[in-house]
Amino acid sequence: MEFISTRGKTAGLGFIDAVLMGLADDGGLLVPKAIPQVSGDTLAKWQQLSYPELALEIMSLYVDGEIPRDELKALIDSSYSTFRSKDVTPVRKLKDDLYVLELFHGPTFAFKDIALQFLGNLYSYISRKNHSIIHILGATSGDTGASAIEGVRGKEGIKICILHPKGKVSKVQELQMTTVDDRNVLNLAVDGNFDDCQRIIKELFADVSFKNEYHLRAINSINFARILAQTVYYFYAYFELLNHGVTGPIHFSVPTGNFGDIFAGYLAKKMGLPAGKLILATNENNILERFVNDGLYRPGEFHMTYSPSMDIQVASNFERYLYYLLGEDGAAVSARMEAFRAEGRIAVEGDLLAKVQQDFAAASVENDDCLATIGQVHDDEGYLLDPHTACGVAAAGQLGARGEATVALATAHPAKFNEAIELIQIEQTFPAQIQALFDKTQHQKQVSGTNEAVKAELLQFYS
Fold first, then answer.
1. Residue 415 DSSP class
2. Contact 118/52 with Cβ under 8 angstroms?
3. For 412-440, b where at least 16 C-beta lie within 10 A, e where not — what string?
4. Contact 6, 31 (CB under 8 A)
5. SS3 content of the chain, % helix, strand, coil (to 5)
6. How far apart are CA 283 and CA 133, in angstroms?
């Protein structure tokens, strides 16, 4: 297995080197040179596997022996032993042909745990094997930070710094990050929005000499290992529906702001998963919905919403999809991304737009519709959605095909977003782990939204 850059100037990397590099040295994102193909016979063999067993089979295709199979199995088993459900990502029927894939049973009650428990353990494994220093640097719109910190807190040889937009994450999200009092953890509250945090991260990683001198490693979904771990639950959910007698096309509705979660579904389909349409759900920050429906990728006005983890205008994983859309042509991707940097827009039309619309459908779900969906599902089904999942359920209602199954990805526990739940007069009981956060002391530093301010904090943290 070889990993290459979407921009064509970085190649020849194995799995571990790709994980360590994170962002490619040429500024692109790393992808497999050839996507492993899964036959119908193999899919049939995988259908009855447990979640960790399935993860082992899928990840082995990309690890390609760099980690001995028994050691990779131990990493996977350890990563998912922390989940509250034995199924890891259970599927629940909501109504008629609509199902929810519950991705919130990990330590921080968010779907990011599925990838970051594994990536945290993987980084620890690499650090021990190579006797190397690992300095993890990441940005969060809310959930990545807590999941990443939980994955590596207290681990020898690893330090982690997470940037979050000050005042633009939910209170529970903030508490999950900032109440961790471990010496290897630094939380920076950045003046600005998530796009500012993400821009700082990308620019610091693009400074190759700084990245190499201070051993910077990526925890955001620019790291391919994040995407790989997330492909597993698309296969798992598909098999669960088959095992319960569902026939016909199975579609997926995915709330997404950074394009990582839905790109994992796209990758699963390119591997051979015979899933139907990928429905992309956004909120008022609808750059991705406009791209799918109109072919124009251009940031608009930033909006704060009840689904803050999707309050993103520039999707860091979009470039991976662009690479495949443009026929795996690194030079074409590089030209498009350079034009985007200069002009602030990417446009596709004709056959390219038709191809986008073969892969995806998209809907934007605004605040009022998000809350209405939470209230309606709670009243009708007795099931409480978080605001991001509500966007996915609403989009499924708009775009799902009648009489065909759709799986909406439930990306977080509703307790993480009680500010929205309270607006519709629904009272919920917090899990004990979340309730305990309110009595803990917070540890964070506020910084301006500049590379220089963040770099100064990092140099102090690493000294």
1. G
2. no
3. bbbbbbbebbeeeebeeebeeebeebeee
4. yes
5. 50, 15, 35
6. 39
Taking each helix axis from N to C end, the angle separating 330-343 and 318-325, rounded to the nearest 10 degrees, works out to 130
Task: Give the SS3 label for residue 374.
Answer: helix
Nearest-10 Cα torsion for 134, 140, 146, 150 = -20
Enter the tokens of residue 89: 């990502």
List residues with catalytic annotation.
Answer: 112
Rounded distance between C-alpha atoms, residue 176 and residue 155, angstroms = 18
Q: Is 126 left (phi over 0), alpha (psi -120 to 50) or beta?
A: alpha
- Burial of residue 168, with CB atoms counted within 10 A of its CB: 0-12 exposed, 13-18 middle, 19 or more buried: buried
The answer to whether residues 434 and 414 touch, using CB atoms and an 8 Å cutoff, is no
Q: pLDDT digit string (tens) for 287-327?
A: 999 999 999 999 999 999 999 999 999 998 999 999 999 99
Beta-bridge partners for 186:
161
Query: Residues 129-151: what's their mean pLDDT?
Result: 91
- Which pLDDT score is estimated for 132? 87
Phi, psi angles (nearest 5°) of residue 266: -65, -45
Rounded CA-CA distance 348/226 in Å is 28
**pTM for the whole thing?**
0.94
CA distance 428 to 226: 31
Name residue, tokens 């034009």. 339
For the stretch 186-198, pLDDT in tens is 999 999 999 999 9
Query: Which has the closest alpha carbon to 389: 408, 407, 364?
Result: 408
3-state secondary structure of 252: strand
Q: Tokens at residue 241, please?
A: 């529906």
How far apart (Å, rounded) are the C-alpha atoms in residues 306 and 170?
9
Alpha-carbon distances, residue 58 vs 40, 80, 96, 229, 254 (angstroms) = 14, 15, 31, 9, 21
Q: At what angle do helices 318-325 and 350-359 cross, to 10 degrees?
A: 120
Q: How far apart are CA 125 and CA 452, in angstroms?
A: 32
CB-based contacts of 44, cutoff 8 Å, min separation 6: none
Is-contact 214 458, C-beta < 8 A? yes
